[in-house]
Structure formats: structure tokens, C-alpha cells
């Protein structure tokens, strides 16, 4: 049995959800595809696919084997392409990113990416869950906050600043805070980590130093979009990325408060696992997304920060780097474009 061909056939059957579709895509007969899958299952001594007259589905063993085959075939393709500098990027590319960055920044520009690299099949993961790139077979991710995972390569592509804001309705009922002391009389919408359940306290920078304030709250959310909507509905003060809040600030549906003590900004990075040969797909995607962020004034990597904040961010990153933290408890203050990567 040609194991490599069997893996390719199995992957194509799963991707097309059809034996006939796999046969057409690989220029084979349906009977040949069926024979190869049956031979593969006999060789592995496990059932990979559940078959009915209407559909096929992966068994738990099949799902695990699919992920491993995907990685192996990607490595084979990467190894082959690494010997040719003129190789045009092609094949699957699985990326993951925070919800609002995907929705507001990346997705609107995907026509440009596909026009440049028409042979890359992009699998876009968008959401608040921080994935494990290796375990979840993700080729590249966009993350916000200082990176501590030494198994990942990180390239800084931008900076996210944050604002404290509330709806006009909330401010009409409660007044606008003019100092941090005024927050004792106000209510916050809290954000909590979907990873560890930790509440993320309100964060302010005073004279270049961080100040966390625990505010009264009757509501918490672990989804960035829901968190923002709570602020827009007048349910309390929120702290959101400036680029995400900007349309609402301009329309008047949100009003920034305590601007003098804006929350500390965080770097935005494109990260990927360390490989001896960097995949051409990952390389061109990172270059493309870095260019995309460079053209976004609020997120560009060389965005000039106030001196005090810039010194604090540098000190914070260096101090965190000196204190390794387990992955499960990493970056509790890091926010993604929807307050997600907690």
C-alpha cells in the first residue's frame, strides 16, 4: 500500500465529504478510492469513517488521524517547496485570530490576499478561544499581548490601544467620571477569561505605571462582541480596543471617559510554530497581514505612544519575560481585538 497516497485520498474524501468527489478531484475511479480507504482501515485496524447511504462522517479515530495526516502532508509539501525559491505558495493554510480583528480588518481585505495567492486555500478561525497552534494544527495566529511561549515565533505587526467608554444613556443616569476616584460610584461590565474564568479588572496608566481598579459589577461576559454590546446598551463602563470603539465614538453611541488615564496598549503579533523550513503559505500570509496592519493607522506597529506608556510597556514586557508562566495561566491581562485572548 502506498501510505502517502492513502493519506491523500483519505484527506480528500473528508474534505469533499464524498467518495465520488474525492475520485473526481484526484482523477481516480470511485471504486479505487473505496478500495484505498478500506485498505487503509484494514492496515490501521480502526474504522476511520462512518458510512451511510446519505453521508459519511469521521469516527473519533478518523478525526485524530485526519489531523495527523494534514500535518504530515503539509510537512511534505513544505519540504518539497523549500528546495525551490520560485515555488508559488499553494495548499491549505489554517490561521486563527480574534473576532473583531478578523471581522473588521482581515476579512474585508481577503479579496486582495486571494488575488495575490489564488492557490492558497485559507481556513480562517475567528473567535475568542485561544487555540494551541500545535495541538489544533493551526499554521499561524494573530495574538495580542506579550508572548511567553518559547515554542512560537512571534513577529510584531501592530499595536492595540484601549479606551474606557460608556453609552450616553449610562452617563446621563450616572454622570461622567472625571477621576479614578469617581469610579467608586460607577458600575462596570466585566470581561472574564473563557480559559480560566478570571475577571479582568479595569486597567489604567497613571504616571507611566499600571493601576488596576476593581469596580462594582453585576454583569460579566467572555465574548468580545457581547461585551461591547453591553456597553452600547448602557449596562456599564467598558474598556475596548480603540479601533473597535472608533465607529461608535464617532457616531456618539459611545463616549470616551478618563482619557487621561487610558489603559495600557499591547503589541499585536503574528505567531507560528518554530519550523526548520518556514511554510511558503505562512511566510506570505505573515508578510501580507503585516502590510495590512501597516496601512491601518490605529494598529500600525510604529504607532507612537506617549513616552510614559511606551516605557511602561517596555518594562512590562521585559519583566514578564523574566517570569515564565504556564500556558494555562498566561497573559491574563492580554486583550485581543474583542477582549478575547485571555
Biggest pleated-sheet summary: 5 strands, mixed
Mean pLDDT equals 81
Count structural domains. 3
Topology as H/E string? Answer: HHHEEHEHHEEEEHEEEEEHEHEEHH
Q: In terms of per-residue confidence, which ranges show pLDDT below 50 for 5 or more consecutive residues? A: 304-342
What is the CATH homologous superfamily assignment of the largest domain? Periplasmic binding protein-like II
Number of helices: 11
Query: CATH topology of the largest domain, what is it called?
Result: D-Maltodextrin-Binding Protein, domain 2
Distance linking N and C termini: 46 Å
Strand segment count: 15
Structural category: alpha+beta
Estimate the strand proportion: 15-25%
- Spatial strand arrangement across the major sheet: 4-3-5-15-6
- CATH class call of the largest domain: Alpha Beta
- Shape field: elongated
Which value, in Å, is the CA radius of gyration?
A: 24 Å
CATH architecture of the largest domain: 3-Layer(aba) Sandwich
State the helical fraction.
25-40%
Q: What report would you give on this structure?
A:
By secondary structure, this protein is α+β, with helices and mostly antiparallel strands. The chain has three domains: 3-81, Winged helix-like DNA-binding domain superfamily/Winged helix DNA-binding domain (Arc Repressor Mutant, subunit A, Orthogonal Bundle), CATH 1.10.10.10; 91-160 and 265-329, D-Maltodextrin-Binding Protein, domain 2 (3-Layer(aba) Sandwich), CATH 3.40.190; 162-261, Periplasmic binding protein-like II (D-Maltodextrin-Binding Protein, domain 2, 3-Layer(aba) Sandwich). The protein has eleven helices and 15 strands. It has helices spanning 3-16, 19-25, 30-44, 60-81, 99-106, 110-116, 168-174, 224-232, 242-251, 280-294, 307-321; strands spanning 49-51, 56-58, 91-97, 120-126, 140-144, 152-160, 162-166, 187-192, 199-200, 202-206, 209-213, 216-221, 238-241, 255-257, 266-273. The strands form five sheets. The chain has a five-stranded mixed sheet with strand order 4-3-5-15-6, with helices on one face. A three-stranded antiparallel sheet has the order 13-7-14. A three-stranded mixed sheet has the order 9-8-12, with helices on one face. Strand 10 and strand 11 (209-213) form a beta hairpin. The two termini are 46 Å apart.
Amino acid at each position: 500500500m502506498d501510505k502517502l497516497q492513502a493519506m491523500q485520498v483519505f484527506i480528500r474524501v473528508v474534505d469533499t465529504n464524498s467518495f465520488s468527489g474525492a475520485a473526481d478531484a484526484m482523477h481516480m475511479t470511485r471504486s479505487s478510492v473505496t478500495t484505498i480507504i478500506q485498505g487503509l482501515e484494514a492496515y490501521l485496524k480502526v474504522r476511520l469513517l462512518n458510512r451511510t447511504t446519505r453521508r459519511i462522517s469521521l469516527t473519533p479515530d478518523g478525526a485524530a488521524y485526519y489531523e495527523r495526516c494534514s500535518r504530515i502532508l503539509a510537512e511534505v509539501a513544505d519540504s518539497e517547496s523549500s528546495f525551490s525559491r520560485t515555488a508559488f505558495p499553494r495548499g491549505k493554510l489554517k490561521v486563527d485570530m480574534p473576532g473583531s480583528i478578523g471581522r473588521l480588518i482581515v476579512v474585508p481585505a481577503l479579496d486582495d490576499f486571494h488575488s495575490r495567492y489564488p492557490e492558497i486555500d485559507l481556513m480562517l478561525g475567528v473567535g475568542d478561544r485561544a487555540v494551541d497552534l500545535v495541538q489544533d494544527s493551526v499554521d499561524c495566529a494573530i495574538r495580542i499581548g506579550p508572548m511567553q511561549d518559547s515554542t512560537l515565533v512571534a513577529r510584531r505587526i501592530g499595536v492595540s490601544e484601549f479606551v474606557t467608554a460608556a453609552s450616553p444613556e449610562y452617563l446621563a443616569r450616572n454622570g461622567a467620571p472625571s477621576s479614578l476616584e469617581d469610579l467608586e460610584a460607577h458600575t462596570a461590565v466585566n470581561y472574564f477569561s473563557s480559559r480560566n474564568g478570571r475577571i479582568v479588572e479595569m486597567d489604567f496608566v497613571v504616571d507611566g505605571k499600571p493601576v488596576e481598579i476593581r469596580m462594582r459589577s453585576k454583569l460579566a461576559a467572555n465574548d468580545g462582541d457581547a461585551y461591547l454590546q453591553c456597553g452600547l446598551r448602557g449596562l456599564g463602563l467598558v474598556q475596548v480596543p480603540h479601533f473597535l470603539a472608533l465607529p461608535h465614538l464617532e457616531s456618539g453611541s459611545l463616549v470616551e471617559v478618563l482619557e487621561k488615564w487610558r489603559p495600557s496598549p499591547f503589541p499585536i503579533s503574528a505567531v507560528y510554530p518554530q519550523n526548520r523550513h518556514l511554510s511558503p503559505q505562512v511566510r506570505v500570509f505573515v508578510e501580507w497581514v503585516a502590510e495590512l496592519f501597516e496601512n491601518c493607522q490605529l494598529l500600525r506597529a510604529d504607532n507612537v505612544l506617549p513616552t510614559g506608556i511606551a516605557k511602561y510597556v517596555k518594562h512590562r514586557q521585559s519583566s514578564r519575560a523574566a517570569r515564565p508562566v504556564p500556558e494555562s495561566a498566561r497573559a491574563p491581562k492580554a486583550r485581543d481585538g474583542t477582549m478575547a485572548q485571555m
